[in-house]
Automatic annotation (TrEMBL):
Keyword Ribosomal protein: no
Similarity comment: family membership: Belongs to the LysR transcriptional regulatory family.
PROSITE patterns (UniProt xref): HTH_LYSR
Protein's UniProt name: LysR family transcriptional regulator
Keyword Transferase included in the entry's annotation: no
Domain annotation HTH lysR-type: ranges: 1-59
InterPro entries recorded: LysR-type_TF_proteobact-type, LysR_HTH_N, LysR_subst-bd, WH-like_DNA-bd_sf, WH_DNA-bd_sf
CDD domains from the UniProt entry: PBP2_CrgA_like_3
Domain of life according to the entry: Bacteria
Keywords from the named record: DNA-binding, Transcription, Transcription regulation
Length: 306
C-alpha cells in the first residue's frame, strides 16, 4: 500500500474527524480509507486514532505524526508542481464554494474554458452566501468577498470587486435623487446583513479620499445579493450592489446609478483554503484560473456610468 496514500488518508481523517467525510473528500470508498489508516498504524506500530461509535479523535502520537505528515505532503506537492508544471495531468474531484451571484454571472458561464484546460477534474460548485466550515463540509476552497477574518485559512487575492449605489427609476421619481452622502439618511435603503453575525452593514463611500459609513432610513435588510436586486427593482429603496450584478440593468434603464462621485473603494476577492491542508494541484489550478478570469472579465472591471 502506497505510503503517500496512507499518509494522505490519515491527515484527511484527522481534519474531518470522520472516515466517511474523509472518504468522500478523497473520492474513495470508506473501507479503503479505513484500511489505509489501519495499515499505517500497523507499519508504525502505534495507535494514531481513538475510535468510538460517536467520534474519532487523534492520539498524542497521532498528533505528532499529523504535523510532520502535513509538512511532508506540502513539500511533496510543491516539488511535483515545480518539476511537472508544464506536463502534470491535473485530475480528481474538486469541491469549491462561491457567492451565488458571482457563480451565476461570472464563474459558471466561463467553465467551458476551465474544462477545456482541465478535462479530468470533476468539479462540484456550491453557490451560497452562507458561512461554511471547509473542513467540516469537505470543501477544498472558497471564493469570498472582503478581508478574511478566519486565521485558520490561507488567503490568495484573486481580484477586486467594485460596488455602486443604485435605485430604480420609480423610486427616484417618487423620493428624488440624493445629491450628496448627507442626503442618504433621509432616503429609504435596502442594506445587506450578515447571516453569521446578524450585523446590518451601512453604505460604504469615499468623499475626497475620506471613507464614510452612511446609514439610511431602513425598513428592509437582506442577506442575499440576488434578492437585493429584486428589492431594488421593486422600488423599495437605494441599494449598494456589486457593479457586475447591475451593469445589464443600468444599460436597460431598469436601474440608475446614484452618487457616482462617491463610490466605495474596491473590495478584495480572495480564494481561501485550510492552512493545515496541502495545496493540491487541482486547487492550485482552479485558483490560478479564477484569478485570470477575474482579471479579464468585463463585468468585473471598474465602470463609471453616466
Amino acid at each position: 500500500m502506497d505510503r503517500f496514500d496512507t499518509m494522505l488518508a490519515f491527515t484527511r481523517v484527522v481534519e474531518l474527524e470522520s472516515f466517511t467525510k474523509a472518504a468522500l473528500s478523497l473520492n474513495l470508498p470508506k473501507t479503503t480509507v479505513s484500511a489505509q489508516v489501519l495499515a499505517l498504524e500497523k507499519r508504525l506500530r502505534v495507535k494514531l486514532l481513538h475510535r468510538t461509535t460517536r467520534r474519532i479523535s487523534v492520539t498524542t502520537d497521532g498528533a505528532a505524526y499529523y504535523e510532520r505528515a502535513i509538512r511532508l505532503l506540502n513539500e511533496l506537492e510543491e516539488t511535483e508542481a515545480a518539476l511537472n508544471q508544464a506536463t502534470v495531468n491535473v485530475k480528481g474531484r474538486l469541491r469549491v464554494d462561491v457567492p451565488a451571484p458571482l457563480g451565476r454571472l461570472v464563474i459558471i458561464p466561463a467553465l467551458p474554458d476551465f474544462f477545456k484546460r482541465y478535462p479530468d477534474i470533476q468539479l462540484e460548485i456550491g453557490c451560497d452566501d452562507r458561512p461554511i466550515d471547509l473542513l467540516e463540509e469537505g470543501v477544498d476552497c472558497v471564493i469570498r468577498i472582503g478581508n478574511p477574518v478566519d486565521s485558520t485559512l490561507v488567503a490568495r487575492r484573486v481580484g477586486t470587486m467594485q460596488f455602486m449605489l443604485v435605485a430604480s427609476p420609480a423610486y427616484l421619481e417618487t423620493y428624488g435623487r440624493p445629491a450628496s452622502p448627507d442626503d442618504l439618511p433621509h432616503h429609504q435603503g435596502v442594506h445587506f446583513f450578515s447571516s453569521k453575525t446578524g450585523k446590518v452593514y451601512p453604505f460604504l463611500l469615499t468623499q475626497e479620499g475620506v471613507k464614510l459609513e452612511v446609514a439610511t432610513t431602513r425598513q428592509l435588510a437582506i442577506n442575499n445579493g440576488d434578492a437585493m436586486v429584486s428589492a431594488c427593482l421593486a422600488g423599495l429603496g437605494i441599494c449598494q450592489l456589486p457593479s457586475f450584478m447591475v451593469q445589464a440593468l443600468l444599460a436597460s434603464g431598469e436601474m440608475e446609478s446614484v452618487l457616482t462621485d462617491f463610490g466605495a473603494e474596491g473590495f478584495p476577492m480572495n480564494a481561501l483554503y485550510p492552512q493545515n491542508r496541502h495545496l493540491s494541484s487541482k486547487v492550485r489550478a482552479f485558483i490560478e484560473w479564477v484569478a485570470e478570469l477575474f482579471s479579464v472579465c468585463p463585468l468585473l472591471q471598474a465602470i463609471r456610468p453616466a
